[in-house]
UniProtKB/TrEMBL annotation:
Protein name: AbrB/MazE/SpoVT family DNA-binding domain-containing protein
Species per Swiss-Prot/TrEMBL record: Eisenbergiella massiliensis
Amino acid sequence: METVKRKILFNKPGGTASKNAMMARLTLPTEFVKALGITQEEKEVIISLEGEKIIIKKA
């Protein structure tokens, strides 16, 4: 299993979001995305939280 360290980017969303709303983003290494078979046409993923792990699977 390959592991990389990344930082989470936090932003305040615009539009009709609540005043205290916070949005978090994470960039994924391209090789991870390719390994899952995620493309610009097939970009849906399923995200789940298992204990202290975030699991990302192709939908």
